[in-house]
Amino acid sequence: MEPVTVLALYFILWWLSLFVILPFGVKTQDDEGDVTLGTVSSAPNKPLIIKKMIATTVLSAVLLGFFYWLVVIQGFSIDDIPFFPKPDLT
Predict the structure, then answer these.
(1) What whole-number distance in Å separates Cα of residue 61 and Cα of residue 10?
(2) Residue 48: half-sphere exposure toward Cβ, Cα within 13 Å
(3) Where are the domains positioned within the chain?
(4) What's the rounded Cα separation, in Å, for the pair 68 and 88?
(5) Is the predicted pLDDT of residue 81 greater than 80, yes or no?
(6) Cβ contacts of residue 71 below 8 Å, gap of 6+?
(7) pLDDT tens figures, 25-59
(8) What is the pLDDT of residue 58?
(9) How many CA atoms lie within 13 A of 4 on its CB side?
(10) What is the Cα–Cα distance from 36 to 62, expressed in whole angstroms?
(11) pTM for this prediction
């Protein structure tokens, strides 16, 4: 696998992982009873963004390692998926 491909895949996995991790542990301003004037009461009180970015980095690295193991080391390809129609090139 080319290094640019690995970086592109890591970038995509990182953003997908971020959107998966963002909702965990969020307490709204309304839950905490501390609504800042001019904000929506459903806005997060303490988003803990640094911890979530670290968790996202770890999760995406694990996912990339699994994908690399599956494709490069095990040799899995799209042709190995059962019931996937193969094009007739004749």
Answers:
(1) 7
(2) 13
(3) 3-80
(4) 29
(5) no
(6) 1, 77
(7) 999 999 988 898 999 999 998 889 999 999 999 99
(8) 97
(9) 0
(10) 38
(11) 0.77
